[in-house]
Amino acid sequence: MNDMSPEKTEKSKLGKWSRRGFIGAGVLAGGGLLIGIGVRPGNPISSLAPKVAGGAGEQLVNSWVKIDTNNIITAIVPHCEMGQGAHSVLGQMLADELDADWANVRVMQAPADGSYVVTDTARMFLAPFTLNAADWIEPTWNGLFTQMARMADAMITGGSSSIRTTGQFSMRVAGASARKMLIGAAAESWGVPADEIVTRDSMMSHEASGNSAPYSEFATAAAEQPMDQTPTLKTRDQYRLMGRSKARTDIPAKINGTAEFGIDAAPEGLDLSYAAVVRPPVPGTEAISMDASRAQGMSGVLQILNMGNFVAVVADSYWQAQQAVNTIAIEWSQSESPVKTMDDQFAVFAAALDEAGETGGSEVAARGDAQSAFGEAARTISAEYHAPYLAHAPMEPLNCTAHVADGKCDIWTSTQVPLMARSEVASTIGLSTDDVVIHHPYLGGAFGRRLGAEYVAMAARVAQTTGYPVKLIWSREEDTQKALYRCADMSRLRAGLDESGALIAYDSVFTQRHDPAEASVPAMYDIANTSVRAAEAELHLPFQAWRSVDHSQQGFFVESFIDEAAHAADQDPLDYRLAMLTNAPRHKAVLEKVAEISSWREPAADGRAKGVAIVESFGTIVAEVIEVDMSSGKPVMTDIWAVCDAGYVMNPDGFRNQIEGGIVFGLTAAMYGELELKDGAIVQSNFHDYQMLRINEVPNIEVALINSGDVPIGGAGEPGLPPAAPALANAIFAATGTRVRELPIAKQFV
Amino acid sequence: MANFILNGESITVDADPAMPILWVVREKLGLSGTKFGCGIAQCGACTVHLDGQPVRSCSTAVSQAEGREVTTIEGIAGPEGELTKVQQAWVSEQVPQCGYCQSGQIMSATALLRDNPSPSDADIDAAMSGNICRCGTYTRIRRAIKVASGQVEPRSEDLGEEA
User: Fold this and answer.
1) Based on the number of CB atoms within 10 Å of its own CB, is A603 exposed (0-12), middle (13-18) or buried (19 or more)?
2) pLDDT at B132 > cutoff 60
3) d(CA A248, CA A253)
4) How many DSSP H helices and E strands does chain B contain?
5) Structure confidence at residue B157 (pLDDT)
């Protein structure tokens, strides 16, 4: 195709890019918002190109797109693929703006390189949300800013954010801009006006002159074209790929065993050894001494290492390493934590809440004058809710393969934070980040757990000590007992009702405030006098964001308590909510729709009842109705309905899959999720006592979507989760009159 | 030395007889489609077939495979990689999310459908409840099994515009 013979283009393109500083045009500005495509100004593409466009004849058009001589277009995606489908949908968004032929679009994981940080995306995240926030919860948006600031200079996948930030503001801009550059190059070559060139399915054509060509023919010339910093994006009526349920590009490899996850790393030319580890049973303690005499003689054992905050056995196989490490008797230092049991932890929470009383603690949000309003209430109800610690338990156990040699370190791992992992490795083993290369394939689940990278640093330390490459794998027991956790929490709530039962005063105080800051605020409801307070208390176990973060416990607290208020007012819980949504038309529409599809107003069969909950999180409003059958005395879920308004859904089937998954994740926690403590250590150890919902316990889930339109679009990965636990608990109350105020549920109905 | 037939091929491998099949196929034979999830036969991610029967390879010693046939996820497609009905249904119903458990799910479903060409919901529950999916794709797994067994029509390749 023209002058794009591989030898020629490989040489020339690097020279051109370097000279013109083409990639420096990467930061785009428009409409008062900083719109970035995620590349640093001045970053030389000559260093980027070899990392993403190593193939002969491939042309990197901008940092997110490359086109090869066969007209295969590759979208280079900065986010990891952990099951959420972001790779596919980000590819769809770029391809649509580029008018690319979807059948010949590929998606590639961007390397862990500073060029692919999501800084600008993160900053921009803030603006549309600030515009949407009700004035009285404005202070809480500072928390969101903090969350976003943490994403700065990082390459993070989390916060249900990939599509609504990187997709909307980077991939689409990159696609539209690349299209314009291709058209510009063709217009010059053909001597025709650019606006007469039509693009479709990775082809350009000019009717009057009879010219037509595939994109690949002008890929090299396109890189010479000026980059439009504010290309016109398509309007919804022009979408060809966005809004459609295109099949996911990662699925074919996930059904035949070829998909590569971190744990599958088999770097060419490296003879791997395997490490199993034991970490301290109580956080913050260290191995003082160990007796490894039994392990020493065991078959395959190569080295036994006391690394202080963990003990490792390196062996010829992981199985041998694990067998050996299990035999080591380790004396651990004493913990200074006063918490030995969950009763102790809840006592710490209770003390903080006692001290805060009815007005103390730090203000999260306030509207009206809640304290005076309680004085005017015809009646007041109050309740205390508890949530336990939870493990993330991704199916792929934590693992990392590391090779440290000649002052360099190569890492193969599943991570949500490749650049943070790189920094952590560099600082841990004393290398510069430039000497650490992170290879990060698919993640076998993460749910927030892989935002932490301590397991990566552990592998680097072991590999540095051994000098040979090591694959370090945590057992399921280590992952369950010695990791990072969804926090336990306790909340005390009060509601003041007037003579008609309407909520005129609302107050809540709780001990854990992480992200998102607004998770505890029932902003959508018309409650004239509201106060939300935090009385922070120390956690015994280390915290890590867990799918939907604070919404995971606050959804249960708030939506269960609103249900209590409805029943106290002797009103239908769904109608009671609807009456409080006069200023929230989107929420109201979602709730009305879920009433319709769940036949809410029709009587349930004997022993069955429905519960409802509605939560807005990560920009998406989700209402769920769960029907439960209590006729056996135990909760059996018989049907689940969900209605979601994300503004606009880029891939409806992918979105539904995420909502279904979020619901199952939330219900798993609601039914079974609990970590207990004994002597400060976690009791549960594996799936036999840290139970997951299984297929026989999950009924049909119907998910309906509303594209309400002109609002910033919402996320998909997390918003299905928060309403699940309260919808189930509310159904159980409707069926039995027993109010669930502590999780998990299953053990309360034996 | 362990001797068995792996995906139709005779294999001799130097392995401790007590070593679970999972680690033999993953580390010694380089087939990484079979996954480690729990190590105690609780999650099903490691499911393979031993003489056609689904077993949890994390808890089955390689000595038990002596002279027998072991089939992994890599061994179920046709000689040219033609997908089985189960695999095709997993694609048409867009089942996987992270995909880590899906090798085990597909191996369990494949064994179910060979013995029971038209499974009921209760049959599916019984055969599949040993396989955990942390992403929560259970409703899609159920539908895909019904598609693979011809009880439900597959969805079209392009699901089109909705909502």
Assistant:
1) exposed
2) yes
3) 11
4) 5, 5
5) 57
Smallest CA–CA distance, residue B141 to chain A, in Å, is: 9
Please tell me if residue A288 touches chain B, with a CB cutoff of 8 Å: no
List beta partners, residue A301.
A315
Looking at residue A220, its amino acid is T
Q: How many CA atoms lie within 13 A of A114 on its CB side?
A: 12
Smallest CA-to-CA distance from A52 within A42, A62, A37 is with A62
State chain A's maximal CA–CA distance in angstroms.
85
> Across the interface, do B100 and A394 touch by the CB < 8 Å criterion?
yes
CA distance B103 to B74: 9
Q: Are A185 and A226 in contact (CB under 8 A)?
A: no
Q: What is the per-residue pLDDT across A445-471, written as a single tens digit (0 to 9) for each?
A: 999 999 899 999 999 999 999 999 999
The pLDDT of residue A470 is: 98
Q: What is the pLDDT of residue A63?
A: 67
Rounded CA-CA distance A82/A450 in Å is: 10
Say yes or no: A326 contacts chain B, CB-CB below 8 A. Answer: no
β-strands A311-315, A379-387: how paired? unpaired
Q: What was the ipTM of the complex prediction?
A: 0.97
Instruction: Mark which residues 461-480 of A lie under 8 Å from B by CB.
Output: 473, 475-476
**B136-to-A144, A251, A659, B77, B155 alpha-carbon distances in Å:** 28, 16, 10, 25, 20
Q: d(Cα B43, Cα B37) in Å, to the nearest integer?
A: 6
Which residues on A lie below 8 Å from B157 (Cβ)? 247
For an interface test with B, which of A236, A395, A638 has the most B Cβ atoms less than 10 Å from its Cβ? A395
The reported pTM is 0.92
Instruction: Check if the beta carbon of residue B59 is closer than 8 Å to that of residue B50.
Output: no
Question: Which region among A201-215, A229-243, A317-331 has the lowest average model confidence (pLDDT)?
Answer: A229-243
For residue A89, report the phi and psi dihedrals to the nearest 5 degrees: -70, -35
Q: Are B57 and B41 in contact (CB under 8 A)?
A: no
Query: Which among B35, B132, B163 has the least Cβ separation from residue A694?
Result: B132
pLDDT the model gives residue B6: 98
Q: How far is A700 from chain B (nearest CA, A)?
A: 6
- The alpha-carbon gap from B67 to the nearest alpha carbon of chain A, in Å, equals 22
Question: Which of A79, A102, A255, A268 best probes binding to B when mutated, by most B CB atoms within 10 angstroms?
Answer: A255
